[in-house]
Amino acid sequence: MSGSKNPAVEVQGLSKSYGSVLAINGVDLSIGAGEYFVLLGPSGGGKTTLLRVIGGFVKPSAGKVLLHGHDVSALPPDKRPTTMVFQSYALFPHMSVARNVGYGLRIKKLPAKAVLERADAMLELVGLAGYGERMPHELSGGQQQRVQLARSLVLDRDILLLDEPLAALDANLRKDMCFELKRLQETIGITFIHVTHNQEEAMTVADRIAIIADGEMIEVGTARNIYEHPIKRFTADFVGENNILDGTLAAVEKSKATIDLGFGQVDVPVDNGTATKGATASFSIRSELLELFPTEGNLPNGIQALNGTYDEAVYLGLTISHMVSLPNGETINVRNISGANEAQGLERGAPARVGWPMTAARLHIS
Amino acid sequence: MTDKYGSIWTYRLKWAYTLLVVVSLLMPVFYVMYVSFNEHGFGAADYTFTLDWYGVIFKDKLLLAALGDTTILAIITTIIVVPFGLLAAKYYKRTQRKVLTVSLLLSPLFVPSDILGSALLVFFKNLSKIFEALSDWLGNEWFYGWFDLGYTTAIIGLVIYILPYVFVVILITMGRYRDEQTEAARACGAGAWQAFWHVEFPQIRAGIFSSCAFAIILSFNEYTRTSLLKGGYDTFTTVLISQFLNEGMSEQSFAMSSAVSFIAIAAIGSIIAFTLLRTEKLERTARAKALPVMST
Amino acid sequence: MPSDDTAETIAELDTVDKTEGSRWQPAPLTLFGRILGENGLGRWGLFLPVGFLLLFFLLPLMLTYVWSFFERTQFWMKPGFTLFSYVNFFTSARLENFLNSMWHSSISVAVAFVFGFPIAVFVRRRVPQVAQHRVILLFILPFMVSELIRIFALRPVLGRNGLFNTVLIDLGIITQPITSILFSPTGVIIGEVLSFLPFIVFAGFLSMEAVPKYVFEICDDLGAGRVRTMVDVILPLAAPGIFAGSVFIFVNGLGVALIPDILGGPGAVNAGLIATQAIAALDYPLAMAISAIMMTTLLALLYLGHRLFDLTKILTPFS
Questions:
Q1: What is the ipTM for the molecules in this complex?
Q2: Which of A204, A228, A252 is the last residue of a domain?
Q3: For residue B54, what are the CA distances in angstroms to B51, B79, B256, B293?
Q4: Cβ neighbours of residue B4 under 8 Å, at least 6 residues apart?
Q5: Chain C residues near residue B118 by CB distance under 8 angstroms
Q6: What is the 3-state secondary structure (H, E, C) of B219-280?
Q7: Which residue of A has its CA nearest to B191?
Q8: Domain assignments of chain C as residue spans, ordered by start
Q9: B69-91: per-residue pLDDT in tens?
């Protein structure tokens, strides 16, 4: 008998309000089986609430949640095919690591021997072989998260939810854990839904990313698309380092549009037909795609440029950021790898010209 | 420890004053205990230590019967009020109307015992009449006697009186508990009751047991509401007061009061000491495990 | 290096075949589950104690207002609407006694405040944080003794031949025993203070607990003198607690019949005693009228306090 071909998780028209505060506002989402899906967004934007609705810990005010095609809106967490890893404090402090991991199996009334075997095997999988008899408070943060993973994965459910699992860890440990999570997911093959506000984390692990902010789903796409081709202005602002300038559309053609910024005009590529002349628009360009060009002389082909005044350079180790002031008061950020173009010799206040390949910019209508 | 600006002597003086006040509050009781050991009774010039009076009270049939009834009352009340306190604490954590809820739960503290007792007495008498009328209308005797003054009504009165105390103790104990753990248990497949019993209860056990002890002692000691609501039988406190009023402070009364007070103080004192020592130890480990160490 | 067991576990875990899809189905609901709802007793079980209080506490107290207007019959009362009980009360000698008891209760509040509040301040400010609760719990100990015993025990202490007088005579401070401290208003006041002083300590401490300790340290840093700190900083911050504690003492002083009954002189009464005497005399409407008056006083005081001080601040440690 073949199973359901529906997406693993489907969210339809979901809303949740707490009193007068609207935490989630009409979100639709579809997550396929075996995906590593990330909900990325600023703190308080509703992504954790969304995750908890999927898990059954929060009842939605409107809308439906379907898991493998079945409406589970009325089911409590223990009756759903989901399990969850929390940010912290979620290990049972009065039980040893092995008993923690085996808890779900004991609930399922597995015989004690089987519980022990599976718990041990799972601990080995997460790299904590032999830690069975330790108590949670003896473990470090990273180890505690791994025990949580073991505890959830041993239940062999279809969907694993992770609520900012790496937020309490320091930067280096976070990087390692990201790779571990990705490896685990690829090995085991179930669906992971991971909530975070950290972009790098998201980009490292995700197959697809959904940007959630202010209770709304802004954009969904693969990590690459979200980064290189953001559709919404918010996405461009939130992911990566983008320079965003606002203006109005002066002219629209088949493959490009011209934006009037007030102090100059730039051309941007257009790939969908929703641009109309006169509309408010903005464009974004990633700081690593910008270059400082000499203020006189011709520009190479296909390069758009704006004139401004040089502010200063900020050394960041791997890269240097050159800050350039534009006539409208905003600052544009040119990021180069340290060592290249350093001998610009520009002083504060000197005129500067910032340029980029026209095709690298992105147009945003709101 | 002490702030840098005060002198150590002022600190000690204030400590001494605090302890003095506590002792003064307890002093009448200690005096009663002192007298209860005196063979010659109260007001006598000589003092001879004796345990005779305690022997007398153990032969007093009326008193022993009353003690028995009171114990039953206390146990049943505790069985009801502690789960109530637990449910109330959980309700409080979950509800949006927090101020309203906690005001309702703490309000029995503000209504004096005689007022509450009188109001409940009239309420129950009325309720009894209504139920009897209902029974008559139905043509049977099913609803007779439900709310006649007796065990049921006394227990209701006691539960109302004790609930605020139990509620506060349990709420404070639950303050240390992280809800994520219940959620994690649910996420592992445990139902609501299983999650509570396996994960939450072991961690709030101390608070639950202290509130049980608290509840037993409070119901044992309570007088006014019980006397108004108990109907015909005698409780420990009502026997005590009838003796006081009829015979004055007899030597037996001294002994009786002392015995019970001593047990109560010793019981609660040791529970407080034990719980606090245990909490300190738990706190130390909790502090260690709550903050994950920032390394692999 | 994954062992054989691990590989086995992984193989078992590989439930999601990407081509086949998941076979999970929600479990069918049992009859029991259908009745209780998905979360078991969760929904209305939690409401039980609150419902209990609403039914057996709030309702009877509200009904006292209704019953106070009933007419008295020989053994019970008759539904009706009459102000007889109130008129009776306000025009009788009881009124004067009642007002006296209010005055005595007020004195008790003041005395309790003077003796008890400094303790709350001391514990909050000077005692190390970890020990604070322990010290406050010391004041629980008197409650472990029955209120009955505590009040009655004052007779041998304050009486003619009691501890107090005996000690003073032995020390040579007085030659004749003082008789006015028992069976008198003074006795009542002493009884009330000793019974309820811990509540001022608790309430004062609780409302100051809501204030972080560094506020007090700032006072020291800024060089404020003792009195200034007290008046400008501590009293306003602790005001909700002080008020709540005072209301508690006042209302209980008026309402606990035991104290004037045992320690008061002939004819000493308070509202609680009038009410219980009325019940003993089978004059139920009168008892209800007294209760209603008491509760109105309580509610008025609490409302006043809330307007002045926002009493909800005391509840912050609970949220």
A1: 0.80
A2: A228
A3: 6, 30, 7, 59
A4: C220
A5: 64, 275-276, 279, 287-288, 291
A6: HHHCCHHHHHHCCCCCCHHHHHHHHHHHHCCCHHHHHHHHHHHHHHHHHHHHHHHHHHHHHH
A7: A78
A8: 97-318
A9: 888 888 999 999 999 999 999 88
Number of Cβ atoms within 10 Å of the Cβ of C319: 12
Contact A77 B286 (CB under 8 A): no
End-to-end alpha-carbon separation of chain C, Å? 49
pLDDT digits (tens, 9 = 90+) for C41-73: 556 778 888 999 999 999 999 988 888 888 777
Q: Name the one residue in this structure whose structure tokens are 């440029």.
A: A305
Is the CB of residue C156 less than 8 Å away from at least one CB of chain B? yes
Residues A151, A21 share a domain: yes
Q: How far apart are CA C109 and CA C197, in angstroms?
A: 8
Q: Note the helical H segments in chain A.
A: 47-55, 97-107, 112-125, 141-153, 171-188, 199-205, 223-228, 233-238
Q: Which of residues 156-185 of A touch B (CB under 8 A)?
A: 161, 168-170, 173, 176
- What's the domain count of chain A? 2
Residue A220 shares a structural domain with residue A340: no
Q: Is the pLDDT of residue C317 over 70?
A: no
The last residue of a domain, from among A228, A254, A281: A228
Q: How far is A135 from chain B (nearest CA, A)?
A: 9
pLDDT at res. B249: 61
Pick the CATH number of C97-318 from 1.20.120.420, 3.40.50.300, 1.10.10.10, 1.10.3720.10: 1.10.3720.10
Full residue range of the structural domain in which residue A54 is found: 9-228
The pLDDT tens digits of the residues spanning C296-306 come to 988 888 888 88
Query: Model confidence over A33-67: pLDDT tens digits?
Result: 889 999 999 998 899 999 999 999 988 999 999 99
The structure tokens listed for B290 are 């709550």
Per-residue pLDDT tens digits for C192-238: 888 888 888 888 888 787 777 777 777 767 766 666 666 777 788 78
- The rounded distance, in Å, linking the Cα atoms of C1 and C81 is 88
Q: What pLDDT is attached to residue B272?
A: 66
Other beta carbons within 10 Å of C175:
7
**Helix%, strand%, coil% for chain B, nearest 5:** 80, 0, 20
- Residue ranges covered by each domain of chain B: 53-286
Confidence of residue B41 (pLDDT cuts 50, 70, 90): low
pLDDT over 70 (residue C311)? no
Q: Closest to A33 (Cβ–Cβ): which among C21, C27, C39?
A: C21
pLDDT of amino acid C141: 79
- Best of B95, B183, B188, B278 to substitute, by most chain A Cβ atoms within 10 angstroms, is B188
Looking at the structure, do residues A168 and A58 belong to the same domain, yes or no? yes
Chains that touch C (3 or more CB pairs under 8 A): A, B
The alpha carbon of residue B203 is apart from the nearest alpha carbon of chain A, in Å, by 8
Q: How many percent of chain A have pLDDT more than 70?
A: 96
Mean pLDDT of C96-101: 86
Structural domain contains residue A33: yes
| C169-185 pLDDT, tens digit each | 888 877 777 777 788 88
The verdict on residue A200 lying in a domain is: yes
Model confidence at A299: pLDDT above 50: yes
Q: Which residue of chain A has the CA closest to B288?
A: A137
A282 & A322 share domain = yes
The answer as to whether A211 is a domain residue is: yes
pTM of the model: 0.81
> Does pLDDT of B166 surpass 90?
yes
User: Contact partners of B by the rule of 3+ C-beta pairs under 8 A?
Assistant: A, C
β-pair partners for A286: A242
Q: What is the mean pLDDT of residues A107-111?
A: 90
Instruction: Please report whether residue A235 resides in a domain.
Output: no
Q: Is B160 on the interface with C (CB under 8 A)?
A: yes
Instruction: Note whether A76 contacts C27, CB cutoff 8 Å.
Output: no
Report the half-sphere exposure of A285 (CA within 13 A, side-chain side): 28
Residues 198-257 of B with CB under 8 A from C: 217-218, 220-224, 228, 237, 240-241, 244, 249, 253, 257
Which residue on chain C is closest to B196 by alpha carbon? C42
What CATH code is assigned to B53-286?
Answer: 1.10.3720.10
